[in-house]
Structure formats: structure tokens, C-alpha cells
């Protein structure tokens, strides 16, 4: 039996469920926006402007400002960075926790994957 490479297996999954491809594209766009937040954000997200309190949607503030004069677009872009940092920590931690709880050992020595039959 010929061994399949990753791209062949992935293409099979995408053919079965196109939602997978849309989810990956959506995730890639969010990841790209979060990584490029310092370049894309028009203002500092923590800058408080006295003259722009609750400004409507304008060319300079595409999503407007808060009641304290903070640019909403910049806050959203930088908030995505924070969310990704939390996810990068939470997902591996949860994976290790589940693996540890499923094993009979008292403490995990590593978080290396085991065969599905070890559960």
C-alpha cells in the first residue's frame, strides 16, 4: 500500500467538507490581521484623545471611537493579538491536562502523543 503525503490527505478532507477550507481561510485572515496589527492600526489603541470623544465613523476612524476617545479599530486589532497569545497557551495546556488525566501516571513526564489505544 502506497503511503499518502500530507497534502493528499488534506485535499481529501477538503473535498469531503469544504467548511474546513473556509475555517482555515478565516483563521489565517485573523492571524494575519493580529500579526500585522502594529502596521495596520491607524492609532495607538491606548491613546486617549480629548477632541475625539465618541466620534462618528469618519475616514480617520473607520469604526469610530469610544467614549474616552480610543480608536475602536486599533483596539480590535490589538485585542486579536492578546486572544491569540491566550490561545497559544491554553490549547497545549488543555491538551496536556487531558492526556495526563487519561493516563494512569500521577504526574506527566511529557506531553508526547500516544497511540489512541492507550486511553
Describe the protein in words.
The chain is mostly helical. Helices cover 54% and strands 0% of the residues. The chain has helices at 6-16, 18-35, 37-40, 72-102. α1 (6-16) crosses α2 (18-35) and α2 crosses α4 (72-102). The radius of gyration is 22 Å and the shape is elongated.
In short:
This protein is mainly alpha-helical. The protein has helices at 6-16, 18-35, 37-40, 72-102.
What key phrases describe this protein's structure?
elongated; 54% helix; 119 residues
Element layout with pairings:
Blueprint (H helix, E strand, L loop, with lengths): L5 H11 L1 H18 L1 H4 L31 H31 L17
Number of helices: 4
Report the C-alpha radius of gyration, rounded: 22 Å
- Through-space gap between termini: 28 Å
Question: Mean pLDDT across all residues, rounded?
Answer: 80
- Class of secondary structure makeup: mainly alpha
Largest sheet properties: none
How much of the sequence lies in strands comes to under 5%
Helix content: 40-55%
Q: What is the number of strand segments?
A: 0
Low-confidence stretches: none
Give the overall shape.
elongated
- Run of helices and strands: HHHH
